Amino acid sequence: MIFADVIVDISVKSLDRPFQYKVPKDWEKEAVVGAQVVIPFGRGNRLIQGFIIGLSEESKYDIDKTKSIERVEKQGVTVESHLLSLAYWLKENYGSTMNDCIKTVIPVRKEVKEKLDRRVYPLKSREEMETLLEEFAGKKYAARVRIMKELLKEDQEVSGGVSYSGLLKAADVTSAAVQGLEKTGILKISEKRQYRNPISNEYAEELLPVLNREQEEIVTAFGEDFSVGVRKNYLIHGVTGSGKTEVYMRMIEQVVKTGRQAIVLIPEIALTFQTVKRFYQRFGEEVSVIHSRLSGGERYDQFLRAKNGEIKIMIGPRSALFTPFQNLGLIVMDEEHETSYASDNPPKFHAREVAIKRAEMLGASVVFGSATPSLEIYLRCMNGECTLFTMKNRVSHAVFPQISIVDMREEFKRKNYTIFSHLLQEKIEDRLHKKEQIMLFINRRGYAGFVSCRSCGEAIECENCSVSMKPHEYQGKVTLLKCHYCGAEKQMPKACPSCGSKYIGTFGLGTQQVEDMVVKRFPEARVLRMDADTTSGKEGHKKILKKFSTHQADILIGTQMIVKGHDFPEVTLVGVLAADLSLYSNDYRSAERTFELLVQAAGRAGRGEKPGEVVLQTYQPEHYSVTTAARGDYEGFYRQEIAMRQILQYPPISNILEILVCSEKKEQAERLSNILAEQIEASDKIRRLGPVDAQVAKLRNQYRRVIYLKSPDYKMLCRQKDILEAFLNEHLEYKDCRLIFTFN
Ligand code: ADP
Ligand code: ZN
Ligand code: ZN
Prior knowledge:
By secondary structure, this protein is of the alpha/beta class. The chain folds into six domains: about 100 residues, 3-Layer(aba) Sandwich (GIY-YIG endonuclease), CATH 3.40.1440; about 80 residues; about 180 residues, Rossmann fold (3-Layer(aba) Sandwich), CATH 3.40.50; about 190 residues, P-loop containing nucleotide triphosphate hydrolases (Rossmann fold, 3-Layer(aba) Sandwich); about 60 residues, no CATH class; about 90 residues, Alpha-Beta Plaits (2-Layer Sandwich), CATH 3.30.70. It is about 35% helix and about 20% strand. The chain has 22 helices and 30 strands. The strands form seven sheets. Strands 11-12-10-13-14-9-15 form a seven-stranded parallel beta sheet, with helices on both faces. Helix 3 packs antiparallel against helix 4. It is globular, with a radius of gyration of 28 Å. The two termini are about 45 Å apart. About 40% of the residues are buried. Bound molecules: adenosine-5'-diphosphate and zinc ion (ZN) (2 copies). One zinc ion (ZN) binds next to loops.
C-alpha cells in the first residue's frame, strides 16, 4: 500500500500541512510527487484539489481511518520534485502558505475540461496585417477590413487567437467572409492552438553582428566557465545600448548547444514585440513567450511545451522563472534593477534571489544585466559572490548626452515661478525651431504627498528615519505630518524650518498640469502625454509611442513609463522637470530610484546620429544621486549609497522583515500587533520599529498595522516569522487576523 502526503488547495494557515491519503491501486502510476489530485476532505468529504508532495509506504495514522485519493488529474503538470523543493524554500524564506508557494511554482490548469471552441488565429505578423488592411481598404473590401481590424485590435502579437463566434459578431460578417480569408493564408480557423510565425520571411536570414571587444571578452569568459562545468552568477553592468542583449543571445547559444535550456526574464513593461522578435530571429521555433495577457490555460500550454522539450528558451516576466525545463543551464535576468521583479502577492519573493536559488539547485548559471544594477547585486560582486563584467561603450559609438544641472532654488530667487527653468525653455525653443524631438519627464512617484518648501526645496523629514513625513489632511487642510515608518508625528509648520519661507506645502503636479503648461508656454508645439489616463485600453500605450516615433509630435510628456527602453533616434533633448522628488518618497531606496531614473532618462537622449542633451532641474543639485547620475558614475553612486545603508542598517547591509497585521476589526489589529511585538526575541541583533499603522492603514475594509524588524542575520528574521506564525495558530481568539510577511 502506498500513501501520499497531500497539501490541500485551500489557503488557510491551519490546513497548511500535509494530509496523508491512500493511493488506490488504479492510480499508482499517475500518483507521483507533484501530481495534482482530487481528494475527499473534511467531515462532509467534500471533493477538493490538492498536490502530492511526498510518497511513502508507511501509514502515519490509523490505516482504516485514512481516506483514499479520489483521482489524479491527468492534465496537471507534475512538478519536478525540485520545483517542490523550491516551493518549500519560498515558504521558509518569504512566509506565506505552502499551498500558495506550490501554486507559484507550478501552473495550475483552472478549467479541467478542454475547451473546444473554435478560434481564429492570424498567421501574419502585425506589420503585414496592417499592410493588408490598407490594401483591403483601398479595394473597398468592407467585410475584410472589419475582420482585419478585429484581429488587429487584440494585442496578440506573440501568440494569438480570437473566438470565432465572437469575431463574426464583432466584425458583423458571415462565416464565408472569414473562411475566404483562411483560404488566402492570412488566418487559420482551428480548435487547436496555432502558433504564429512572428518573423516575416524577409527577416529570416540575419547577419550575426561581429562582437566588439567588450562583448567578445564577456562571451568568451562565460563560455570557458560553462564548458568546464563552472556555474556562477554574473552581472553585466553595461550602459544602455552597449549590446547586452546580443551578449545574452551568444551565451544562450552556447548553453542550448550542450542540450540545456535557458530562461530569459524581462520586466513586463519591456516585454514588447521588438525584444521578443530578436530572440525569435535568432532561435526560431525553439523560443516561447509567456506574459500577463495569456490566460491560465495558455500559460499552462507553454509550460507543457517546455516540459516536453518542444522549446529550449522561455522568455517572460517573473513567472517564467518557474518554467519546468528538464535540464536548465542558464537564467538571464535583464534590467535586474526593475521593481517589477518583486512579487506583491504572497509569497513575496524577489526574482533575483529565486533565480540564484533555482540555478543553484539545478546546476545552472545566472546572468544579470543592467545599466543601473541594484545595490543588492553589486554588493555581491564586491564580495566576490558574483562575477562582474563591465561594458562602458555604446555599440553605435553614439556619444553620451551632455547633462546640465539646474538649481531650481536659483530660478525661484530670480522670480521664475514656472516649472521650466530659463535654460530648459531656451533649449526647448531651440529644438522646436530645428524640428527635433523633446521628452519631458516628471517623476510622479515622488509627488504623492510630501511637504516641501518651494524656496529652498527642503522636505520635512522624520528625525528617526530620514524618510519624508506624510501629510494628513483634516477638513481639507494639512494639519499633521506623520512618519509611516516609525510612527513619529509633527504639527504642520507654518514656515519652512530651514529657510523661513512661507511657500511651503504639499504640491502636486501631474502630467496633465504639465501638459497644460507646456501648451500655454509653447503654443506652436505638438504635444503628446503618456500616463495612466492616456494609455487605457490595450493599444493606448503603443498608439502614443508610434505617433511619437513617426514624428507626429514634438514633445512627449510622461512619467516613469517613457524612460523605459524605448528608442527614439530623433530625440535630442530630455528635460527632467524635478530630478529630486523621488528622494522624498517614503522609502529607503529613494536615492537609488532617483539615480536609476535619471540615468535611464538620460539614456533616452541622443540615440541617433545627432548628439543629445539633458537638463536636470532639481532643488538638490548637490545630492550625490543627482551629481553621480549627471556624470554617469555608477561606482561613485554605489560607494556613497552603500555607506549610507551601512550607517542606517538598511538592506542590503542588513535585512528588514515587514510584518503586516490585518483584521476587519480595528481593535483586533491593534491588540494583536502589540502582543506580537512582545513575542519578538530580545536580542542585540534585532531592532524593532513599530507597531504603527501601515502606510495604507485600511485596505479593502481590513485595518492594517505594521511592525518592522531589522537584523543583519536573515535566518534570525525567518525564525521570528515562525514564532509569530505559531503564536497566531495557537491563539484562536485572533483567528480572523492575518499576517503578511515581506522580507527586504
Ligand atoms: P542593450 O541591451 O545593452 O541596451 P542592445 O543589445 O539592445 O543593447 O544593442 C543595441 C543595438 O546595437 C541593437 O540594435 C543591437 O542589434 C546592436 N548591436 C549589438 N551588438 C552589436 C555589434 N557587435 N555590432 C553591431 N551592432 C550591434
Ligand atoms: Zn520615522
Ligand atoms: Zn525653505
